[in-house]
Amino acid sequence: MQHTSSKGLARCAICGAAETQPGTFPMVVGVGRVCLSDGMAPVKCEVCAGEVKLITSAKLQGKTLCLSDYMREIEKFRQHIVQTYDEDTEPASSILGRAYTEAPQGYTLLAVRRGRNSTHIWEAEYEKTEIFLMRCS
Ligand SMILES: [Zn+2]
Ligand SMILES: [Zn+2]
User: Fold this and answer.
1) What's the 18 CA to ligand 1 centre distance in angstroms?
2) Which ligand has its closest atom nearest to the C-alpha of 10?
């Protein structure tokens, strides 16, 4: 990651304070850039109940986790999700729109297609965004 002054100064996601120098606020996954005093604040991991500093935690689907639990949780995530929509209950154009706007958090839409052996079921396939980005870079 490159921090240049042209990118401007980050603001703390917690208190809104601005950096005095670019690149000094650490990044907390799922939270954003935080100032050092908020970064040092203790938070409780919702999995192991251990107390860690905010900068050594991560937020995943609204839960605060210590980094080791965060790593374990993201491993557990399935790499692909398929959601089905029924054209009998809504028009295809609405399905296509929803498949895109209602992507599960952290996933990227790969494709929307007709379900196998079906004339009215659509399947939307999502891939975990981290994996999607890895493949694309
Ligand atoms: Zn702050
Ligand atoms: Zn933990």
Assistant:
1) 8
2) 1
Q: Which ligand is nearest to the CA of 67?
A: 2
Distance CA 68, CA 73 (A): 9
Give me the sheet containing 80-86, strands edge to edge.
Answer: 80-86, 121-128, 107-114
Residues lying with their CB under 5 A of ligand 2, a single-atom ion: 45, 47-48, 50, 66, 69
The ligand that comes nearest to the alpha carbon of residue 40 is: 1
In this predicted model, what pLDDT tens digit does every residue of 55-88 receive, in sequence order? Answer: 999 999 899 999 999 988 877 666 788 899 999 9
Residue 118 CA to ligand 2 centre (angstroms): 44
Query: For 27-62, b where at least 16 C-beta lie within 10 A, e where not — what string?
Result: ebebbebbbeebbeeebebebeeeebebbbbbbbee
- Specify the pTM: 0.53
**Long-range pairs for 31-34: beta carbons < 8 A, 24 or more residues apart:** 31/58, 31/59
